[in-house]
Amino acid sequence: MSKDFNPNSTAQSDAGIFGLPFTAEESQIIIIPVPWEVTTSYGGGTSLGPEAVLEASMQVDLYHHDFPDLWKKGIFMEEISEEILSLSESLKPEAKKIIEALEAGENPLENPGLKISYKLINQGCEKMIAWVKERTSFWLKQGKTVGLLGGDHSTPLGYLKYLGEIHSDFGVLVLDAHYDLRNAYEGFKYSHASIFYNSLQEVPQISKLVQVGIRDYCLEEKEFAVSQGNRVKTYFDRDLKKSQFTGKNWNQICEEIVAQLPQKVYVSVDIDGFDPKLCPNTGTPVAGGLEYEEGMHLFNVLKASGKTIIGFDLNEVSPGENDWNGNVGARVLYHLCGLAKG
User: Fold this and answer.
1) Is the pLDDT of residue 324 over 80?
2) Of 314, 3, 25, 273, nearest in space to 142 by CA
3) How far apart (Å, rounded) are the C-alpha atoms in residues 177 and 320?
4) Which of 39, 220, 284, 335 is the most exposed place for a label (fewest CB within 10 A)?
5) Residue 165 neighbours by CB under 8 Å, 6+ apart
6) Which DSSP letter does residue 44 get?
7) Residue 23 lies inside a defined structural domain of this protein
8) Residue 149: domain span
9) Residues near 136 by Cβ (< 8 Å), separated by ≥ 6?
10) 6 domain-assigned
């Protein structure tokens, strides 16, 4: 780090994420951007999320209220992979053809051309998952704390698969509007709506999945969650609000949520878990959700519990017509870095 660096000054145009001057070697925290959005079917733009967060991060003051020395730990973001972005952009039109066929009431599997599209998409998703696993393992083996920055919510699977290889037991805390427990949604095995179905199926080391803020889901997902017994605990947004309406305070609720988790915890944040006013451009906004400080307090309660944070991700940031999603996303990401290393 340059001896001339002033954390109170304006971020320089050639600086790294959050305007920091650290190299990867000097940093304790490595952010891996994954510009991916192949299977999104409503709003788009999540492949541009990493770039939006990077740009907005230059406006984040480094003195954090809860983690004042966080910036000194060093945070470094890898270059956005042009290979992954190009692959995502090449496969998105293939997925669009399938989605349009489904919306027209057709069976894509009866169309030879669309069967080929499915094959290409599955192969591409597998390549992305393998790439994420390789990058996370590369840095974790060097003793770094790794955060993943998507992209749509399918992106963390490779990370979770590698964590399953090095940890015998861990929990996942999810902030999201959606269950993401669909089995191959729209025929896409690695759909963004299937991330936690796939995680529970492919990573048996996940002993507990705790989901917070859920408010949009289908019967298939509800039945699958119930079939998992105590392995899945869901805090529906409506129930969280009712608890507060009838006298329970948010701190009590957060302590209950955190108590559900084992000692080792991975944190996964879909930005649409927050109230849509904080992320109006995200692909699938849903009325309701957490306020910003409610989410940060939940993370702080988790931090105070003494549990070990083994990794984290932030997904579904989409820049849209303004930088508001990127702005909020950058601040959530900075807090997640503090949660892991503050």
Assistant:
1) yes
2) 25
3) 19
4) 220
5) none
6) -
7) yes
8) 17-341
9) 32, 146, 148, 158, 159, 162, 311
10) no
